[in-house]
TrEMBL record:
It comes from Spirosoma profusum. The lineage of its organism: Bacteria, Pseudomonadati, Bacteroidota, Cytophagia, Cytophagales. This is DegT/DnrJ/EryC1/StrS family aminotransferase. The modification N6-(pyridoxal phosphate)lysine is found at K181. One of its GO terms (biological process) is polysaccharide biosynthetic process. InterPro entries: DegT/StrS_aminotransferase, PyrdxlP-dep_Trfase, PyrdxlP-dep_Trfase_major. One of its GO terms (molecular function) is transaminase activity. The active site is at K181 (proton acceptor). The keyword Transferase applies. The keyword Transferase applies.
Length: 367
């Protein structure tokens, strides 16, 4: 079975060394030494001032919304994983969906401005597939209208824009360290800020709002454990190699697929990409479904990242009403992510590309 992704695992002996350390200290969670070490190494690797390692990539979105005191309307993307919309709804905000660009599937800054009202407090954008949004344009709009910017940068670890980690942009930026990501801690995530006071607030938010008997604020349990930190410490040194391995497989796909019949999203100029995903865009949902069926018949499991378009989710429209986003709605039914992970063999990639090419050609012949 070839899945759309596969988690990287380090040598078990390397992980066991950290387990032995945990057994000696009996410090399992609550801001332990391995967690603090991982935070330090992550800050150094990413070149950011403050980073809080948390339990997952969704809770950090919720923390960002709460920390910036966002309670009203937030302009966001309809083309993302559902966690983006869920976090807004969970925190009582109203998501206002701005349609996406047809070339890179990131939120379109030109669609943001007309949606701004007196109730707009923030922009929450996703760097889709690890490809940077129009960061400069979004920030210019935010500055003009005094809005906060939160980036769901779940896919971006190791990627850079204009020489800086994508996580360094926005008022707050979040990342997922789920097992399927380029860098992972099995489960986990982080929130990044360059503001000292905000970093302290987030530190307390992560742990019920207190440390020992010093109660500072409201808070939730967003802590992560020493076991997860240990996995991160094992995986982090391998990230450059893992990205290089992904790039090799990305290039094989590029060479094998017939782009006269399909396309893939364009990369933002100034990007240093992490090759987190390999999405392809078909001419219609019919073609996509035919390709999916052909791949699944060969025990190859692609994934519809991202489907459906979030603006049509019933629990979103209940709060926001119908907000048409035709470009996102079309993309959601035509985009398929093909298997992509560091040890995917060239032979398998060639087989996947052959199935895609032949199926698309056959559909064309029957039209």
């Amino acid at each position: 079975m070839i899945n759309v992704t596969k988690s990287y695992l380090p040598d078990i002996e390397e992980y066991t060394k950290y387990l032995e350390e945990i057994w000696k200290t009996v410090h399992l969670t609550n801001d332990g030494p391995l967690l603090r070490r991982l935070e330090t190494e992550l800050k150094q690797y990413l070149g950011v001032k403050h980073l809080k390692f948390c339990s997952n990539g969704t809770v950090v979105l919720q923390m960002a919304i709460k920390a910036l005191n966002i309670t009203k309307e937030v302009i966001t993307t309809p083309f993302s994983y559902v966690a983006t919309t869920n976090a807004l709804l969970w925190e009582g905000c109203t998501p206002i969906f701005a349609d996406i660009r047809p070339d890179d599937f990131n939120i379109d800054p030109e669609k943001i401005r007309p949606l701004i009202t007196e109730n707009t407090q923030a922009i929450m954008a996703t760097h889709v597939y690890g490809n940077a949004c129009r960061i400069d344009e979004i920030q210019a709009i935010a500055d003009e209208f005094n809005l906060k910017v939160i980036y769901d940068a779940a896919h971006t670890f190791g990627a850079k824009y204009n020489g800086k980690s994508i996580l360094s942009y926005g008022d707050l930026s979040t990342c997922s360290f789920h097992a399927t990501k380029v860098f992972h801690t099995v489960e986990g995530g982080c929130i990044v800020t360059n503001d000292d006071a905000m970093a302290e607030k987030l530190h307390f938010y992560r742990s019920f709002g207190h440390k020992n008997d010093d109660y500072r604020s409201i808070g939730i349990n967003a802590k992560n454990s020493e076991f997860h930190a240990a996995m991160g410490l094992c995986v982090l040194p391998k990230v450059p190699e893992l990205i290089a391995d992904r790039k090799k497989r990305f290039d094989i796909y590029d060479n094998q697929l017939d782009f006269s019949r399909i396309k893939r999203p364009t990369l933002m100029p100034g990007m240093e990409y992490n090759y987190a995903y390999y999405p392809v865009v078909f001419e219609s949902e019919e073609v996509l479904l035919r390709v999916m069926d052909a791949l699944i018949a060969q025990d190859i499991l692609p994934r519809r990242y991202f489907y459906p378009s979030l603006n049509i989710l019933p629990f979103a429209t209940e709060k926001t009403g119908v907000q048409p986003c035709p470009i996102s709605e079309e993309a959601a039914i035509c985009v398929l992510s093909l298997p992509m992970y560091p040890d995917l063999s060239e032979e398998v990639i060639e087989r996947i590309a052959t199935i895609v090419n032949e199926t698309v050609a056959l559909v064309d012949e029957n039209v």
